[in-house]
Design a protein that fits this description.
Length: about 110
């Protein structure tokens, strides 16, 4: 059985264990970075889902408001013949007033 009795052998063994430790540290560090990246992606996905839900909620509210406005407009009487009748009556009265004021000046 040979032991590393050489002084250089001990240093080599120490540097190998240091190198292995460094490799393990790097591997752990990259695993931690991967975990961190994954957590960030999940957070972004959650934020996107929340934003989509908020947008959908706002769209539903707009739809409800639009429906309410349409219902309100449907309640307004739609009578084009009555509108024309009132317009002609108004114009006739305006014309009549003009002619009566013109007569006063003469």
């Amino acid at each position: 059985e040979q032991q590393n009795s050489e002084p250089g052998g001990e240093q080599q063994s120490d540097s190998q264990s240091e190198q292995q430790q460094n490799e393990q540290d790097e591997q752990e560090s990259s695993e931690q970075q991967a975990d961190k990246n994954e957590a960030e992606e999940e957070t972004k996905e959650d934020e996107n889902k929340e934003q989509e839900q908020q947008t959908q909620k706002e769209m539903n509210e707009l739809d409800e408001e639009q429906q309410a406005a349409e219902q309100w407009l449907r309640r307004i009487p739609d009578d084009p013949s009555g509108l024309l009748r009132r317009k002609f009556k108004y114009q006739y009265q305006q014309q009549k007033q003009k002619s009566s004021t013109n007569e006063k000046y003469w």
